Amino acid sequence: MEHRTxxxxxxxxxVGITDWVREVENVSLSISQYGIVLDAGSSHTAVYIYEWPxxxxxxxxxxxxxxxxxxxxxxxxxxxxxxxxxxxxxKSCMKEAESLIxxxxxxxxxxxxxxxxxxxxLRMENQSLSDQVLWSVEEVLxxxxxxxxxxxxxxxxxxxxFGWVTVNYLSDRLKxxxxxxxxxxxxxxxxxxxxxxxxxVAEESAENAVTFRLYGNDYFLYxxxxxxxxxxxxxxxxxxxxxxxxxxxxxxxxxHPGYSVDRSYFSVYSSPCVMAGKxxxxxxxxxxxxxxxxxxxxxxxxxxxxxxxxxxxxxSFNRVYQPPLQGPFGAFSAFYFVMNFxxxxxxxxxxxxxxxxxYCSRPWTQIKQQHPDVKEKYLAExxxxxxxxxxxxxxxxxxxxxxxxxxxxxxxxxxxDAGWTLGYMLxxxxxxxxxxxxxxxxxHAGYVTLxxxxxxxxxxxxxxxxxFLWPHRNSQxxxx
Length: 480
Ligand SMILES: Nc1ccn([C@@H]2O[C@H](COP(=O)(O)OP(=O)(O)OP(=O)(O)O)[C@@H](O)[C@H]2O)c(=O)n1
Ligand SMILES: [Ca+2]
Known about the structure:
With about 475 residues, this protein is α/β, with parallel strands linked by helices. The protein has a domain at about 155-415: 2-Layer Sandwich (Nucleotidyltransferase, domain 5), CATH 3.30.420. Helices cover about 45% and strands about 20% of the residues. It is built from 16 helices and 16 strands. The strands form four sheets. Strands 8-9-7-6-13-14 form a six-stranded mixed beta sheet. It is globular. The site of calcium ion (CA) has 4 residues, from loops.
């Protein structure tokens, strides 16, 4: 009996306390896992570090962005003159990543680089130069201590679709299988629109259709990336429209009154986006003069879109198919930078137009005085950028006064930047399962509590055993 009781105690120890100890150990040992994605955009490169709990069940750990580093200087496509130097530009952010991620995790931290529209344009202009730039960044990333998984130019379709995955993953809409949010991304050289539409997208325009099966739900996505319609390239398109006559100066309604800058024709016409030829004039430059009129600016901007024909049931612009919009939408990157600066992230479409009208008409000297800390290049362009965004969303994508409020301008969701990088990594690391994971009947904490009470109950039962069996044995001995 004593022996059996003893075994029970051992057994009890095994089920209760040891497991508890193991639980505590697990919690303290639950080191994080990390992943790094470099977003090599047209205007700049950013390094994102993601972190998630290293549990067996990956799915329970929400992946979060814990750090971002902005690479000094312009995007990697700007190194086309000295392609070998593109890699060196990444070094300081990569060193930062080395110091932030625990040494013991370096070898198993996947590292990816995805390049977007700037590199797509460079590849169109000169494939060999774009290859050299990629080799240069590859060399630096390969020599890092992380698990390098490749550097490539991602497609516009991937850029749009993974932006959509990021936004919906971060707002926890995928697991719930509830409604989703569309994604609007505005970069320097391209812009993307992605939203759940019905299945006929694939029938009407296969190149705009992406299907995902995530957590047991099927999603039929419409996505399109407009190369050359990022805000920097759109400005070149607008300037090319206005400099066709080859005059020595251009009065531009998209810039503030009093703004006057000499620009080279080359800077406007060197991009493969600018189809119109450089005017045949002997002069190399023109004076870019601001006139500050947002409604006239919108007319200028409208001319960079082609609305003339559509071979589908409906189009956005440039003969691109677009099904009816299905909101809500999250608009990020330059959509956010610009609208946030202009204080246009809330309110009706009409009030945004009025505010922008007032903003554009203000003298350039006054604007500069009011924002001494803002980079002058950004500052000079906000009137154009605001007008371009309003035109792209309404004339281009067909948002109306009624659907305008379906758009939320966002930078981050739960601390992570909205953008394609997180969705790209989740996909490549297979972190989102196609099927819904078996959900345990109790959450983790529930099991710990249950164990605690079972242990308590067993202790109590043992206590009772001792109490009632012990005197009984004694009395038997006495009888013998
Ligand atoms: N505070 C800021 C930061 C950036 N920008 C501008 O916003 C645009 C887009 O920035 P970003 O989304 O970072 O573009 P990229 O990713 O570099 O470009 P792409 O996606 O087209 O490759 C650029 O013109 C940049 O100059 C801005 O106006 N204000
Ligand atoms: Ca981008």
